[in-house]
Q: What sequence folds into this?
């Protein structure tokens, strides 16, 4: 199954994080998607976002992040 | 919307007494103190008095003080003068960009990481190294434990940067250079004060003839104003710093209660790890410049902490190194004339504006 992909390349911070939060809202617990973002702030900010909201982020490659919903801890 | 006027930026206006002294010093048009005329000799006496006064308060010797007309060069000047040998250079991930640039030009440089509270985590540092240490970080207000860091680096040379800390942080038990910026004690902009320890092997890093340690092209009126501002600051310090620390503590608590998903840099509960008057706040899902502009419309001026501007796309290296949110960042500075009511108004305005921006 191919991973749902959200392409935020070319967007400046905090837009990629805002888009991530919008997508997460409609996902079920454990569902994941691939975020593409080339903004230099995305990596730091996505990790900070995950710490604040309880969702999970994994860095797959440069500018590629796997985001997994954790609805057990938070719904934001 | 709340409509109040408040300056929460790092720069604050000079006090009336300092502004008057500055204007008078400029009006007198001081001669070059190095020349031989009577007016030069008067300038020399004034210069010596100012240096002695500043040295006394900063707890250095008058002969250790050099004045620099370009303050942003100061920290680099201090460290570069120690780096002439092939010594390994250690600097922190949250150090000034100028120091990061210096590290790039040096053969063996090592970046020291910081923890999430901004405290430097030193690796094993070999003897004979040079360390660049900020007493406090100007962006976050995080204060380092200088003595412990220096203890972990025996027989090393130490370039300290007190530009944000000023006299709020004590000099460590051992140092080679210490840089001060009068802005830290509400003095004028445009003068740097570099203390070079009597016992150090520091050398002027620029090509020079003779024994000149700095270019000596600084403004005497700015020194006069800086010395008077430091006297004033010291006089007010005991009364004011506890009040400002309480104000900042209450401000941070109120922000945490009112606004969710906000990173506040540093551990303010521990008095030794943060300056009393600076708060760096990052609000999730908010664009920092938009927040700055909307606060400005309410008559509230704060500083933009994070870069993310048209000129510089890179996020703040300081916040990144601490693992903190880099977007939606503003820096709030409380001054000696900041009132409790102004602090409350700022909390209200931040709460309303962050909510508005998150809705859009």
A:
């Amino acid at each position: 199954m191919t991973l749902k992909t959200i392409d935020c390349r070319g967007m400046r911070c905090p837009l990629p994080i805002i888009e991530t939060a919008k997508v997460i809202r409609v996902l079920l617990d454990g569902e994941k998607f691939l975020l593409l973002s080339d903004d230099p702030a995305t990596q730091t900010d996505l990790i900070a976002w995950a710490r604040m909201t309880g969702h999970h982020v994994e860095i797959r490659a440069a500018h590629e992040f796997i985001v997994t919903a954790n609805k057990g801890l938070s719904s934001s | 919307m709340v409509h109040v006027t408040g300056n929460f930026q790092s720069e604050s206006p000079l006090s009336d007494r300092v502004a008057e002294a500055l204007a008078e010093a400029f009006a007198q048009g001081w001669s070059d103190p190095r020349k031989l005329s009577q007016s030069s000799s008067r300038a020399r006496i004034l210069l010596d008095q100012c240096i002695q006064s500043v040295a006394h308060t900063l707890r250095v010797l008058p002969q250790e003080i050099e004045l620099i007309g370009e303050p942003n060069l100061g920290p680099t000047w201090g460290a570069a003068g120690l780096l002439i040998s092939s010594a390994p250079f250690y600097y922190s991930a949250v150090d000034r960009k100028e120091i990061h640039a210096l590290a790039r030009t040096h053969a063996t440089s090592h970046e020291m990481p910081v923890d999430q509270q901004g405290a430097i985590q030193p690796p094993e540092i070999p003897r004979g190294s040079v360390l660049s240490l900020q007493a406090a970080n100007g962006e976050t207000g995080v204060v380092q434990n200088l003595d412990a860091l220096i203890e972990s680096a025996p027989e090393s040379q130490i370039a300290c940067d007190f530009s944000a800390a000023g006299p709020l942080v004590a000099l460590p038990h051992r140092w080679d250079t210490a840089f001060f910026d009068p802005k830290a004690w509400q003095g004028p902009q445009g003068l740097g004060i570099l203390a070079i320890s009597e016992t150090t092997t520091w050398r002027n890093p620029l090509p020079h003839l003779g024994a000149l340690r700095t270019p000596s092209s600084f403004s005497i009126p700015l020194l006069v104003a800086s010395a008077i501002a430091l006297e004033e600051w010291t006089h007010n310090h005991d009364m004011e710093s506890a009040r400002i620390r309480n104000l900042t503590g209450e401000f941070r608590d109120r922000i945490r209660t009112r606004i969710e998903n906000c990173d506040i840099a540093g551990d303010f509960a521990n008095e030794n790890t943060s300056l009393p008057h600076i708060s760096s706040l990052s609000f999730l899902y908010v664009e920092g410049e938009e927040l700055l502009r909307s606060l400005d419309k309410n008559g509230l001026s704060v500083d933009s902490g994070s870069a993310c501007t048209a000129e510089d796309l890179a996020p703040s290296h300081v916040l990144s190194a601490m693992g903190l949110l880099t977007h939606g960042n503003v820096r709030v500075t409380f001054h000696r004339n900041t009132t409790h009511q102004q602090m409350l108004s700022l909390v209200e305005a931040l709460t309303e504006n962050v909510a508005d921006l998150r809705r859009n």
In short: The mean pLDDT of chain B is 92. Chain B is about 35% helix and 15% strand.
